[in-house]
Automatic annotation (TrEMBL):
One of its GO terms (biological process) is proteolysis. InterPro entries: Papain-like_cys_pep_sf, Pept_cys_AS, Pept_his_AS, Peptidase_C1A, Peptidase_C1A_C, Peptidase_C1A_papain-like. Belongs to the peptidase C1 family. This is Cathepsin L. The keyword Metal-binding does not apply. The keyword Glycoprotein does not apply.
């Protein structure tokens, strides 16, 4: 396994915020009848009912923490992300010149989506891993990041990966079972990679019998913000990121109505909350519905199928609802078809946060 590189930029702030979030969210979700009565005051396009997570403490279902210095982090990350992507592009083009047969295997040469399409769903391409279940812990941050990595491995390498969220929870330093931050989680994936779920099964605690020295074959090349300058990227920016990178991680505000969602377009108007608390994966969009298609981490006893297959665990959520898309991020798997030469990276003035990326690429 690569030498562990802890991302320290968020450290104390993240842990302190995690404790505050956990303390503030000890309430249970209102019962279904109360939720239905409240919804009578609004004109809605979705249904609520009994779900596998209704009645749980919200702290066991959420846990996405966005630190106060997130803009500084985004500003530092933006030029680094662009440079690594440029190096990846150059190496990809070089590899294809040497071996033209690679062109048919590399996703970037055959992108099937464009942001002007009325509907796009990565599930139809077989590039979304199965829905998982974080319950009962505030580990959505790990499931969102790992879901993005799994999709990127499918897209870039056509390799199915069932990656271990537990390994990240136990060893990344990016968060706890009471909440975490996706930025250092993504940086840790670039620095260390992760192991398989079968090697380190999820147990919803901070401990695991799997040693930290376990091999971590599932690497990320780079990560970044969908729009470093915006707290919530525009619909167009998110669509562009979905086409370029695959499913993207994002934050949303999950309340009782969200937890009781059973179908339709989630368009609940929330005027009392100006924050987010839950990380999900945006896997597509439908302009006819004016909605994102999101993958959740609450198992298949929640949500609906969103017009693809019969598996639940997904949601249509109206653009802009509940601050969906806040601090959206992408992650890109390392290609198995070519690699970036270490010497290409030596002139890049990476800051402390991103030195982990260099070590991963030079491994």
């Amino acid at each position: 396994m690569k030498k562990s590189v802890l991302v320290r930029l968020l450290g104390a702030t993240t842990l302190a915020t995690a404790a505050a979030v956990a303390s503030a969210q000890l309430q249970k979700i209102p019962d279904l009848n109360t939720l239905k009565l409240d919804l009578q005051k609004q004109k809605i396009s979705f249904t609520i009912g009994q779900t596998s997570v209704l009645g749980k403490d919200i702290k066991q279902l959420t846990g996405d923490i966005i630190p106060p210095n997130i803009q500084q982090i985004a500003d530092q990350q933006e030029p680094i992300s662009k440079r690594v992507l440029e190096l990846d592009r150059l190496e990809r083009e070089s590899a294809v010149k040497i071996n033209p047969a690679l062109r048919g295997k590399i996703y970037e040469f055959q992108i099937p989506a464009n942001p002007n399409m009325k509907r796009w769903d990565w599930r139809t391409q077989g590039k979304v891993s199965p829905v998982k279940d974080q319950n009962p812990a505030g580990t959505c941050w790990a499931f969102s990041a790992m879901g993005a990595l799994e999709s990127s491995w499918l897209i870039r390498n056509n390799v199915t990966v069932d990656a271990s969220e537990q390994f990240m929870v136990s060893y990344s330093g990016a968060g706890t079972t009471s909440g975490g931050d996706r930025a250092p989680a993504n940086a840790w994936l670039v620095a260390n990679g992760t192991t398989a779920e079968a090697t380190c099964p999820y147990n919803a605690t901070m401990t695991t019998s799997t040693p930290a020295s376990t091999a971590t074959p599932y690497d990320a090349l780079a990560w970044g913000f969908v729009d470093a300058a915006a707290d919530i990227p525009s619909v167009q920016k998110i669509k562009e990121a979905l086409c370029e990178h695959g499913p993207v991680e994002a934050s949303v505000y999950a309340d009782g109505n969200f937890i009781a969602y059973t179908g339709g377009i989630f368009d609940h108007v929330d005027t009392a909350n100006n924050n987010t608390n839950h990380a999900i994966l945006i896997v597509g969009w439908d302009d006819n519905k004016g909605a994102w298609i999101i993958k959740n981490s609450w198992g298949t006893g929640w949500g609906e199928s969103c017009d693809y297959g019969s598996g639940r665990g997904f949601m249509y959520i109206k653009y802009g609802t509940h601050k969906i898309g806040r601090r959206a991020m992408w992650i890109k798997a390392k290609s198995v078809h070519y690699f970036i030469k270490p010497e290409l990276l030596k002139s890049i003035p990476f800051n402390t946060l991103i030195k982990a990326n260099i070590r991963a690429i030079q491994r």
